[in-house]
Amino acid sequence: MKETKIVEVEVFSIYQQNMPTYEGKEEETFVIVLKEKNRNRFLPIWIGKPEAQAIYMGMKGIVYERPLTHDLIKSILDAFDIKLEKIVINALKDTTYYARLLFKDREGNIYSVDARPSDSIAIALRTGSKIFVAEEIMQRGEEFDLKEEY
After folding, report:
1. Which residues contact 147 (CB under 8 A, 6 or more apart)?
2. What is the Cα–Cα distance from 68 to 136, expressed in whole angstroms?
3. Is 83 exposed, middle or buried, given 0-12, 13-18 or 19+ CB atoms closer than 10 A?
4. Distance CA 90, CA 117 (A)
5. Which residues make Cβ contacts (< 8 Å) with residue 129, sequence separation at least 6?
6. Mean pLDDT across 20-29
7. Is 14 left (phi over 0), alpha (psi -120 to 50) or beta?
8. Are 32 and 44 in contact (CB under 8 A)?
9. If DSSP codes are grouped into helix, strand and coil, which group holds residue 49?
10. What does the pLDDT look like over 46-89, one tens digit per residue?
11. pLDDT digits (tens, 9 = 90+) for 98-140
12. What Rg value do the Cα atoms of the chain yield, rounded?
């Protein structure tokens, strides 16, 4: 079985974008931009407002008095001594990205769970876990020279 090459990325930015709808109105959408570590390759992923807020809170370390969903997931993992080893954005079908959460329990067993990339990233930011993207998906992003852009 062929192993998929993956590259480590980090959350580079989140920004808001207004997109025209079929009805002629504008819809508020958000884009999370992942940047490959040590290279200027970027991968934009369009997400909804609640997902953008959850990722932003994870980036900034914002915690509410009562746990929100991704904070609750982290608490459950901690309570059962399960580590989120990494997340991998591993597929793109039509315009939808797919991800896997890879967990390790205290006995060393590895579990792989299907998830949306936005949820996976929000959890990874809270647990300090690494984020990866399959090379074939990363190649769909564009290569930028940040020195020229900024």
Report:
1. none
2. 33
3. middle
4. 9
5. 83, 84, 85, 86, 87, 123
6. 84
7. beta
8. yes
9. helix
10. 999 999 999 999 999 998 899 999 999 999 999 999 999 999 99
11. 999 999 999 999 999 999 999 999 999 999 999 999 999 998 8
12. 16
Residue among 133, 81, 84 nearest 110 (CA): 84
pTM, two decimals, is 0.88
> How many whole angstroms separate alpha carbon 52 and alpha carbon 132?
19
Identify the pLDDT of residue 149.
38
The pLDDT confidence band at residue 22, using thresholds 50, 70 and 90, is confident
* CB neighbourhood size of 126 (10 A): 21
Strands 110-115 and 96-104: antiparallel
Identify any residues that bridge with 16 across adjacent strands, giving them in sequence order.
30
Reference 46, options 25, 70, 19; nearest CA is: 19
Residue 94: what residue type?
Answer: D
CATH 3.30.70.270 fits 6-143, yes or no: no
